[in-house]
Design brief:
203 residues, alpha/beta, Rossmann fold, 2 domains, 7-stranded mixed beta sheet, 6 helices, 47% helix, globular
């Protein structure tokens, strides 16, 4: 009987320690994950995709979202972000010139240069809009992804094979709900991977 009582007391003690540990974990502040979503848009289609990407990223509770046009991004915002998602319309089967200029600013204005590669290990993702089914959307996605890989970023995709994409026709039709959902899934996945990666680095 005495042995049984000791076992019960031991079980109660272990349970109390577990509850105390769980409470301590729950009270720890959740580290924010900075998600920077940048885009160029004249007709509003790429902007609609960018907003959908932001909606998806917000599904990760610790995500802190910044949504800006490429020309408005400050160097400090770029350097402190945990994840960068870039969107562009397709111009002549490539990213828009404004988006290329944004990447060029990495080195010219922000000093992102080898061997430091200040964007190293940040999570990246891409999305595009194009007028036709075969208008160069995959090439435009690849050029964005290539710029990220050149900066030693970790690129993930969702929606299409290389990122989210929308076909806009003559520019008068709205982006479809299916395409917006692809953009949301991209934003959620980038934010989720960024959160997982940052949590792992903190161990």
């Amino acid at each position: 009987m005495a042995k049984q009582n000791r076992l019960i007391l031991l079980a109660i003690f272990v349970l109390a320690l577990f509850v105390q540990f769980a409470a301590a974990q729950a009270n720890q502040p959740t580290e924010k994950i900075k998600i920077l979503i940048v885009y160029h848009s004249l007709g509003g289609h790429t902007e609609a995709m960018a907003k959908a990407v932001a909606e998806g990223a917000k599904k990760i509770p610790q995500a802190e979202i910044t949504l800006k046009k490429v020309g408005e991004v400050k160097c400090q915002e770029l350097l402190v972000t945990d994840a960068l998602i870039v969107g562009s319309p397709v111009y002549w089967s490539n990213m828009a010139g404004e988006v290329k200029t944004f990447f060029d600013r990495f080195s010219m204005e922000c000093g992102v240069l080898p061997p430091a590669f200040q964007m190293r290990d940040k999570i990246g993702g891409a999305f595009v809009t194009g007028g036709e089914t075969s208008s160069g959307k995959e090439i435009a996605l690849m050029t964005i992804v290539a710029a990220m890989l050149g900066n030693r970023m970790i690129v993930v995709s969702e929606g299409q094979a290389l990122g989210a994409a929308a076909t806009t026709g003559d520019g008068k039709a709205s982006v479809t709900e299916k395409e917006l959902d692809e953009a949301r899934r991209l934003g959620e996945r980038v934010a989720s991977v960024a959160a997982t990666f940052k949590r792992g680095k903190g161990k």
